[in-house]
Structures are given as C-alpha cells and as structure tokens.
Amino acid sequence: MAPQISPSILSADFARLAEDVERIADSADWVHVDVMDNHFVPNLTLGLPVVQALLKHSRLPLDCHLMIEDPDRWAPEYAEAGAKSVTIHAEAAKAPIRTLRAIRAAGARAGLGVNPATPVDGFEDLLGEVDMLLLMTVEPGFGGQKFLDVVLPKVRRARELIKGRDLPVWLQVDGGVSAETIERCAEAGADVFVAGNAVYGADDPVEAIRNLRAQAEEATAKANW
C-alpha cells in the first residue's frame, strides 16, 4: 500500500480547527483526531461533540484515536457519528473483539493501538479483527515528544506478523514522526504516518505533507518487507 499521511490536529489551532483541517484537505489522506480523557492519559483534548462538528466541515475522513479509559463504551459512537477510522487502545479495552466488531458494524475501519512498552505478539490472534494496528512511538498524552527509537524493532515485528497472516492490515505509527524519523518508520514497515508538529508547526503545512510523503515513498520502495 502507498504510504498515507494523517496529520494530527492536536498540534493545530483549537480555535480554528475547521480552517486548519481545510488547509490540508488537498494534500493529506486523513485528519487524525487525538481524543484524550485525562484518565487513560494525563491530558484532556477533544471529544465526540467536536468530532461531530468537524465532520460537517472536513473534506478528509476522520481518523479518531481514542486514548480514553472506557473505549468499549464510546468507540462505536464515533463510528456511528461518521468517523471513518476509530482506534481503541489494547491497554484500555475490556472487550476488544466486541468493540472492534461494533466499530466495523457502524461503518468505520477498526484500529487497535498499543503503547511503547506493550508487546505486539500477544495480539497476533486479533489481527483478523482489525483494519489497522497503531504503534505509539511516544508515550501517549502529549504532542511534541521525542521519537522513541526503541519502538522500531516492534514496528518490524508487527509487519512480520501482518505479512505472515497475509492480512490487509494497515500499520500506523504515531508520535515524533517528522522528516528526521519517517524514513526509519517506513523502512521498518509502517505505512500510515501520524504527524502533528511536523505538519502544523511548519511554515507551509501542505509542503511539509508533500515532503513527508515523498520521504516515506522512497523509503518504502527500498524496504524489503
């Protein structure tokens, strides 16, 4: 699959979200929405009402990443609202299979996220239930963190598991993705890239997306996975 870029509006101007989403509409693939509840992670950001409002203005599909304590309760509602991808965290979900199936039943792609210290091997049997596996490359909760190189072997392992099962599962990385790190992520096997500060902190977000995509495409072409 060709690399996809999903800019995170966590780094956008919250007072001008619709405008900042429109700025990237012709260059990005997704709008990444980091939903945080100040319980699962130590930060409070956006919730369902904001997502519902954004859906009325965004020409791009919303990629909702739920970093919340009770994803089993809330995840299906994001899909029902119109988000095209909804990711829950393995560390928070109490009934992941049921919740992932509910997301799919509501018409969205179902994603499973794992934190940096969480091994991926334990979730191999769940790969058939997901459309995307998200690997955090920082500790979740805040934007602008430094990329954790220690996660790269896990990205490679996840790609091996997906390839070994011959499943059409996307592999997303989120955290510290920038011009300095995206090539390593692509070489390791990632194909969907969440970028916050690297896009919205740039003088020209559109050009930043184009450059990130070009780097990812070149690295992917050289990779042997």
TrEMBL record:
Any Pfam family hit: Ribul_P_3_epim
MF annotations from Gene Ontology: D-ribulose-phosphate 3-epimerase activity; metal ion binding
Top-level lineage group: Bacteria
Name of the protein: Ribulose-phosphate 3-epimerase
GO CC terms in record: cytoplasm
Family: Belongs to the ribulose-phosphate 3-epimerase family.
Active site, renumbered: 34, 174
Catalytic activity: D-ribulose 5-phosphate = D-xylulose 5-phosphate
UniProt KW rRNA-binding keyword: no
NCBIfam families linked: PRK05581.1-4, rpe
Keywords: Carbohydrate metabolism, Cobalt, Isomerase, Manganese, Metal-binding, Zinc
Annotated EC: 5.1.3.1
Function per UniProt: Catalyzes the reversible epimerization of D-ribulose 5-phosphate to D-xylulose 5-phosphate.
Cofactor(s) this protein cannot do without: Co(2+); a divalent metal cation; Fe(2+); Mn(2+)
Binding-site residues, substrate: 8, 65, 141-144, 174-176
InterPro entries (UniProt xref): Aldolase_TIM (IPR013785), Ribul_P_3_epim (IPR026019), Ribul_P_3_epim-like (IPR000056), RibuloseP-bd_barrel (IPR011060)
Record-level GO BP terms: pentose catabolic process; pentose-phosphate shunt
Positions that bind a divalent metal cation: 32, 34, 65, 174
Cofactor binding comment, as recorded: Binds 1 divalent metal cation per subunit.
